[in-house]
């Protein structure tokens, strides 16, 4: 559990924004950033984001829903969302737990993901249980 990243306090209700500002999310983070990680699946290793999770009810799209684009692949379970203007990945509905969203920590307002204490664990998305 991380309640402070660098000089930024993680608020219990924290905003996340894409690069151009068209997509704005509100995240319920009462425990701060919980279990930040990377994934080595084909999608995640290309985008390079560090993600953390919230329950589905813990993410609200404040603005830009019409700007979001969805991408699915392989089992078509996970739903990855990107800003249609600037291309920034903001969040995804998880394949490993469809009751959760993974969100891009770098989109949290005021947060520099390079300030996260390391090492950041890497999940084994290449050998995902749903592929067996």
TrEMBL record:
The keyword Metal-binding applies. InterPro entries: CENP-V-like (IPR052355), CENP-V/GFA (IPR006913), Mss4-like_sf (IPR011057). It comes from Salinicola lusitanus. Residues 14-115 form the CENP-V/GFA domain. The keyword Manganese does not apply. Keywords: Metal-binding, Zinc. This is GFA family protein. Belongs to the Gfa family. The lineage of its organism: Bacteria, Pseudomonadati, Pseudomonadota, Gammaproteobacteria, Oceanospirillales. SUPFAM superfamilies: Mss4-like (SSF51316).
